[in-house]
Specification:
- Six copies of one chain form a homohexamer.
- Chain A is an alpha+beta fold and 237 residues long.
- Chain A has one domain (14-74, 81-236): Ribosomal Protein S5, domain 2.
- Chain A is 32% helix and 29% strand.
- The first copy, chain A, contains six helices and nine strands.
- The first copy, chain A, has helices at 77-80, 85-99, 104-107, 125-146, 177-182, 211-236, and strands at residues 14-18, 26-32, 35-44, 58-65, 111-120, 159-167, 170-173, 185-192, 197-203.
- In chain A, a hairpin with a 2-residue loop joins strand 2 (26-32) and strand 3 (35-44).
- Chains in contact: A-B, A-D, B-C, C-E, D-F, E-F.
- Chain C binds chain E through residues 20-24, 27, 34, 36, 38, 40, 42, 44, 62, 64, 66-73, 76-79, 81-83, 87, 113, 115, 117, 119-121, and chain E through 20-24, 27, 34, 38, 40, 42, 44, 62, 64, 66-73, 76-79, 81-83, 87, 113, 115, 117, 119-121.
């Protein structure tokens, strides 16, 4: 039995509240159970120097946890003067994932930055961030299309992410913090609606797994992402 | 007339939602109109080295704005590797203000950190932060007292803050962003319930004022803080 | 009785030695008693990027204490790799204060930087810095006018600053270090010759005060600033 | 056809020169074709504070590229004052991978740091680094066992890593730089001798793949790692 | 002819004003012509961790230029967040030089930090700094001896420094800024009273010299240091 | 007798392996005995802003030690976020030395960066670095001439460097680590083929020396550099 009492293939409740902040071109507060991430999409009509003049745009992401999003207070990265390796790893993952479903040429010479700030953490913050960032991006892009600044939709598909793990020998979906702390293996899947895999990050520190284990985790992830796509659909309608 | 359509001595709507995040010993989301600040109080049973062994505790604060809390996206301090002077000035002000109503001996050898993260900014973020931080602190202290870890209440009073300014020649209360950008003078008052002044930061870049002007701003601030004390009262009940 | 033996409304000896360093366009060594601050004004015929092309100039300030300006040696900020919040707060205050008496359009598209380096500290370093920075600025501006680079005088008035506090219940003027360490409240006033207030920073950590207390401190500050204006007058003649 | 002229399942030449530097407790220069990484293992009889007193040791890694390891010179991280996200991501991966085959209790309260410095880069630096770091670690551990400082062998197995990708529609093994720059998808596999998976990092920026694609890449990786285990075997004999 | 009109072997006027600041255990303002450096010696009854428990003390130095010590304003190192290579090179030289005449065992387990802050620069700031730092150190050590905290004098000799260079083919003593900017070679000599050499830093960027050239510069330096020893003697009496 | 068993005027074995890495325009691995430094020359057809438009080029250097180049592991500068004073001092020395034999006008508006990375340290890393950097520079310049991008050879001469010291009273050539740790004085000489001195850095921390001592060290250095010039000659043929 999972600490959360959920079935092995059961996601936590997914809620997506769009328009959570008013200044961003797109924004939502996404929750996977008690994990809550504020995602905003900011459109800027300029590109970093190394991307200019190529006739295409850029999508990038930044990620942070509020100091007390977690059980014990973590030092504020701004006060320490640098971002941790974990933060950088996650924000690179978010950016890559969203670019996997964006046609940068259709986006035009502009940059959209997805800020994913974790207000409350209970496991799965990076997967909630990717899933919510897509909603914020979709809303921002829709705004650009409504204003006629973009002609053809640059978003090629929906994308979502979920973590799976092996908990006491059983593959389970959408680990919360208690489960994650005790899992033998942990994998994050970023999946594109329609069946393609955008990214797999499967790690076993201590325990390990084989092909069959990997495929079982992936099957769970597909189940979870289907739920997320539905929630995204409702949110952006 | 004010851009906001408010009367000169009219506060924006104040709302305080306690328990906004679950891990912190005290937390609230405070709104002054469209300005929304998440305040959390984290209790730690240890002190920085220079404060140890004096038989008293410490209250400190950190402040940050999410990158897209504002009209245009601001660079993330963690990414830039340092906090701005403005951020440091504000977090020092929040810490000093809360210490003005805390008996550090009664707090005992522990530290409470108030994290004030601006989710959405529309003027007056530092005053909302101080007012909300008091609520988070009050809740955290209450928790310590309920568990018997503190005997006598270390909080000596309520404290609240509000900004006032001279807008087109008229002293007005609780400036929002549009008003603030066009005000001739700007003053932040931190006032203790019962009439004492904890802090005055009155600045005139360009315009100036005299004793009478200062006193008129202060009278407005008293009005505003009275509203805030009432909202705090309701929140911590 | 004050530790310094001074009357409650008595300033320390003010001396201003102009031309203390030869390279700066304006410079002075200002002393408030044992507090000594070297102030230089550097004129540069260029502006930071965000100020260019607006047909006006900029006045800014930097502040620092030499490591052994104080009773015990403080770490050098350059060695530690960052400026403290206190330093940033003070240099922002100095810059704002001088801009309050400068017509930036008349200054033209150039920047004047006021460097205020405390050679010896005995309380009131920021107020001495503002008062001395005005002298350095006045000299630099005079030089620009003498060379015909500026037509109309951009300085609209004299500006000076002084700290006041409540020491053992009595409001006193121009706190030195011993008094400051033991004062119940501490306020810095930046006043423009002619009666206007540019800035008030009144802080009560522990003790507090009310309107009457604030006004009494302000009256003392007016007395002190009158002495400083006279010293500035003599210095720039 | 691959730019390198290799068959789809053909590794580049693997060479491992042990004892490349004399001070480290274990060291080797590993080459995957033109990619050359110097791996050293440094044993220290102390642990970082947060790991002390738990009766177990720690294995960690640092990674860097010499500025001119690449086609064009990259800025030196030490000069820029921070490590890139890519560097941090890679060194975290190396550390996790080696810990997956280390029994930290048997290691005892000491730390082994694997430094992986890329002297020349031609694709696959992180996989060469992991494979070479294992050799350096093995040699260092052997030294500790020979001196009687460790009783039971803490290394549970061999570990190796290799990158695979989809190049012009065909899954290929061990991408070099030219192939990597033009691959549609790129996956790094860290595999434990005996069949277990330690880590999968599969990324598709632009292109994507499905279960079958992932499994085909994984089969290639198994082939490649078998060659690496043999080279490791010879090196540590 | 030299721009300064001095003879080839003529020092600039040397003045040393002791007790320039009151808090430091030893202090002086030293001038070599228009170059003015404030030197303070701070005694601390503690050592950095790596020097503790060896029964001896430490002498170290820090160096800085005020931003407007020079013809054009230089950025403040504290604001830029790091010390330049030049600053570090100079402060390491000052520390080494003073340790060359200090018996660290006789000093006992305490640290003396020499802060050398250039108030005005006109060439030769590092040599003035070394020469002045010795005076500050002498005064601080004398204070410790007077209070009985040190029994035997740890200072074994006087030490002084001067720059020499080849200007239009002629070796000249004590270069000022104009001469230094146009010299073909530049050498700094740190010499111990009695004839020993503590340090030579001779650089030829562009031009070069041979043994004879080096010896001629060294002979000039001896002449210059003799003048400095006399000024030091008078200062510490 | 020297710990190394060498005669007082005997260099360690010098080997120079050119083309050690393939991407750099010039590269070599230079060894002075067990000290091994990888030197690469990178040509870039652009200059830092402050050097542009003067019709001449620039030669600069960066230096680093791999963390485990030494007996005990040193912290990685990139991880600590700054270069030590020692590193900066050395890389400035390398750059100055190579510029002493380069006609920057003949080089044209391009920059050559010499990266000197110490793979293994056993004393004399900076002198090996200078001597090897010349080889890398020579090869890079030759490449530019072969391609017709430079008409006239900008390198005016060969340059080499060696350390000498006074070990147990005897002047000795080319100190290794054991000797260096116990030497009474230590001097680095950078000498141009043909007899000119480019740089002398002679330091005596503790012990001292006089003219005669300095000249004896210099004579030894000339012997050592002659051997290095021969090795350089063979390497670049």
């Amino acid at each position: 039995m999972r600490p959360s009492g959920r079935a092995a293939d059961e996601m936590r409740a997914i809620t997506i509240e769009t328009g959570f902040t008013k200044h961003a071109e797109g924004s939502c507060l996404i929750s996977f159970g008690e994990t809550r991430v504020l995602c905003t999409a900011s459109v800027e009509e300029r590109l970093p120097p190394w991307l200019r003049g190529k006739g295409e745009g850029w999508v990038t992401a930044e990620y942070s946890m509020l100091p007390r999003a977690t059980h014990t207070r973590g030092g504020r990265e701004a006060a320490k003067g640098k971002q941790t390796g974990r933060t950088q790893e996650i924000q690179r993952l978010i950016g890559r994932s969203l670019r996997a479903v964006t046609d940068l040429k259709k986006l035009g010479e502009r940059q959209i930055t997805l800020d994913c700030d974790v207000l409350q953490a209970d496991g799965g913050t990076r997967t909630a961030a990717i899933s919510g960032a897509w909603v914020a991006l979709r809303l921002a892009v829709q705004g650009l299309m409504d204003k006629g600044e973009i002609k053809a939709d640059p978003l090629t598909s929906k994308i979502a992410a979920v973590s799976c793990g092996i908990f006491k020998g059983t593959p389970v979906l959408d680990l919360d913090y208690d489960e994650d702390s005790n899992a033998d293996a942990d994998a994050n899947f970023v999946l594109i609606e329609g069946g393609q895999i955008a990214e797999v990050q499967a790690t076993a520190e201590g325990a390990t797994y084989d092909e069959e284990g990997l495929l079982r985790l992936l099957r769970l992830a597909r189940t979870g992402c289907d739920s997320i796509y539905r929630a995204q659909d409702i949110a952006v309608k």
